[in-house]
Amino acid sequence: MPRSFQPQPLPIQTPRRRHRQHGREWAPLLLTCFLLAVIPTLASACSERTEATTSAVVATVGDLEIRLAEVEAHATRELRPLDQERDTILRRHLDSLVSDRLLDLEAKARNLSTDQLIETEITAHLTPVTDAEVQQFYDANQGRIRQPLDNVRTDIRQHLEDQRHSERRNAYVETLAAKFPTALDWQPYRAEVSSADAPFTGPVDAPIDVVVFSDFQCPWCSRFAPDLKKLTNTYDRNVRLTYRHLPLTSIHPQAMAAAEGSVCAAEQNAFWPWHDEIFARQAELPTLDFGVVAQALKLNGETFAQGLASDRPAARIAEDVEAARELGIASTPTLFINGRPVALLNNRPIFDQIAEVVDDELTIQGVSH
Length: 369
Fold this sequence. Notes:
Number of helices: 14
Shape: globular
Strand content: 5-15%
Strand order of the largest sheet: 6-8-7-10-11
Helix content: 55-70%
Order of helices and strands: EEHHEEHHHHHEEEHEHHHHHEEEH
Structural class: alpha+beta
Radius of gyration: 24 Å
């Protein structure tokens, strides 16, 4: 159903707070530039594709035919990130076009040029970025910047100015969307994310299915967990939160053991107490005795030990790892809301970003909130 327009925050280029299993991520700007070069061709091909074209024969081997649909199915894992990025780029450009049209309409109504309107209602309201704010940003992100302040002072100031301009523009455009009838009928990209047999909290029939792929030794997953708990508390009957395992064992040597312990805890209906306890004691993982944790949670020690000695935990975790591989996931935490991959920005509160997607999903489904 059409819904009101709310401009999406522009991605500000800051280092990502995510852990990856293999290698370093491309800088977001380089990745975007690459995809912008590649995706228009893919987008054109996809937009023109029909059932007839996907059934077209693209190769023959002897008497055997290979159809385009078979090729696409074979390449699903590699194409999925491109589909997701294409959706993100198109939505960003849709927001830009809607915002531009709203600014043009308001400028015309006030007998101004669009540039004059932007200067009057956006630029004139911006306050200069102070040296203290630059220093504060640097101090908060020094561990990731890893350069002397003098080397990055200009870049930080520009980053903060861009962020301030974007926030002011979005806020002003929202007021215009209320003045001029504006509605979106955009259908977001959704991946097929199964949550079968995974531990969850919340109603089975909740309209919002939140799935997180996480790692018990990932520091960002630990910082992320309170926001997810706040989400379930805030939305109560409307959200089901599902946990899926993705222990990045090459960089987190205790992650697998912690995950296996959680599977055994889940067999005694204590996954979430285990989840909370392990994240709270994450710094102790290298020396933590999981038997002591099980005892503290009042689990049956013998049953817990027998579970750890069995093949069940490893098999259960392997299912999640394979699901993550099929989805093209290589970092934690990775979040899906009703199949929508949620790309979290570093410059905004995590909970606010998640809540925006949840609210949008509730609106799409016509659920009051």
